[in-house]
Specification:
α3 crosses α12 and α4 runs parallel beside α6. It is globular, with a radius of gyration of 25 Å. The protein has one domain: ABC transporter involved in vitamin B12 uptake, BtuC. It contains 15 helices and 5 strands. The strands form 2 sheets. It has a 3-stranded antiparallel β-sheet with strand order 1-2-5. Strands 3-4 form a two-stranded antiparallel ribbon. About 65% of the residues lie in helices and about 5% in strands. By secondary structure, the chain is mainly α.
């Protein structure tokens, strides 16, 4: 294609450097914010004022920042849960069900001690909190492993299976916390019993210790994929399951392991939001909202190209915009759904710009032809 005096063509990339990927993502974010400015303009709001309110509340406000960090921890755990099977060429759409089962496992530890009626304020947190974490991970791993076995053994579509398991887990939680359910709140409300103060998650300021868990898992996953044999086998299966099988890598083993590990991390996300976030400490009646929020882990995992380290700034941005968008919606008297719309435009832009991860635009100046010079003789 020719534009003016330049020839423009697409060239497939053979190498994408880290700074190039970062620059592409930044341009996508800028474009998304510019496009969404039209919504603010149509609402009669200065976009600069709106974005100032969003980012200042999300990242510089003493009330907004803790909310963003808690949202970031949750999203990073869900993203890591998606990335592990994704690197193996598998799709974990079941983080929602896995985090539900993780939350039931965490609260089930207290039930196993005699039931909610006999929960004591003197429970030893140094014993119970690790047990709750382990139970949450096991709960998520078990339901994740179901999808892994069905995929690896019978080649049943993992997307369908995990979606079905999401519904099963959703209604299981509803059964457990409803009137007459084992986890029902003693006051009869449609939510679980509240945790005793003795097992509240340790805080660093207003931030639960799970931030170290989320960041540590992201770093560990990066190391596993980059430096270990297991990471190599997972990536080999993701590139070509047939070639991986020929080289001795078990499809059943990879499928089972990646879904179980992903489910375990999603289960920890359930522990985080229902048992570690200050002011919650129960399976809230709007638990379905957090289940829906887990789907953003899929988007963040795709945008980060399955890189656990790249997922850290992406999930932080998503957490900030979701909290800041909800805040500006109320402060500037905008219609409901501004936060969802903003994240939607951002997702579309980031996904569209992934085209430039694979191709680059080459501009070549067209040389002007020299006129023929006659020879006199």
């Amino acid at each position: 294609m020719t534009i003016g005096s330049y020839s423009v063509r697409l060239e497939k990339r053979t190498l994408l450097r880290s700074w190039e990927a970062a620059l592409i993502s930044i341009l996508a974010i800028v474009l998304a914010l510019v496009l969404f400015s039209l919504i603010f303009i149509l609402a009669g709001i200065n976009p600069l004022v709106a974005y100032q309110e969003i980012f200042s509340y999300a990242f510089a406000n003493r009330f907004g920042l803790p909310l963003v960090i808690n949202r970031f921890i949750f999203l990073l755990l869900c993203t890591s849960a998606f990335i592990i099977p994704y690197r193996a060429g598998l799709w974990n759409i079941g983080m929602t069900g896995q985090l539900y089962m993780g939350s039931l496992g965490a609260f089930g530890v207290l039930m196993a001690l005699g039931g909610k009626e006999s929960i004591s304020a003197e429970l030893n947190p140094f014993v119970l909190i690790p047990l709750m974490l382990v139970a949450a991970a096991i709960g998520g791993a078990v339901i994740g492993a179901i999808a892994g076995v069905l995929k690896g053994r019978f080649n049943i579509n993992e997307i369908v299976v995990t979606m079905i398991l999401n519904f099963i887990a959703y209604w299981l939680v509803a059964y457990m916390i409803k009137e007459g359910g084992a986890f029902m709140n003693p006051g009869g409300r449609g939510e679980s019993f509240e945790l005793p103060p003795s097992v509240y998650a340790p805080l660093l300021g207003d931030i639960p210790f799970t931030i170290f868990l989320a960041l540590g898992l992201a770093l560990l996953l990066y190391f596993v994929f980059a430096k270990t044999r297991l990471g190599y086998e997972i990536k080999a299966h993701g590139h070509s399951p047939a070639a991986a099988r020929y080289s001795g890598i078990s499809p059943l083993g990879i499928s089972f392991l990646t879904f179980a590990l992903g489910g375990a991390i999603a289960g920890l996300a359930g522990y985080h939001y229902f048992a570690a976030v200050p002011g919650v400490y129960k399976i809230a009646r709007n638990y379905g909202y957090f289940g829906d929020l887990a789907f953003y882990g899929i988007i963040c995992g795709l945008i980060s190209q399955g890189n656990p380290l790249a997922a850290i700034p992406i999930t932080l941005l998503f957490g900030g915009l979701s909290v800041g968008g909800r805040f500006v919606q109320g402060k500037l008297h905008m219609s409901f759904g501004v936060d969802y719309a903003l994240l939607g435009v951002l997702m579309i832009s980031l996904v569209a710009f992934q085209f430039f991860y694979r191709y680059r635009i080459i501009w070549t100046k067209i040389a002007k032809e020299s006129p023929d010079v006659g020879v006199s003789g």
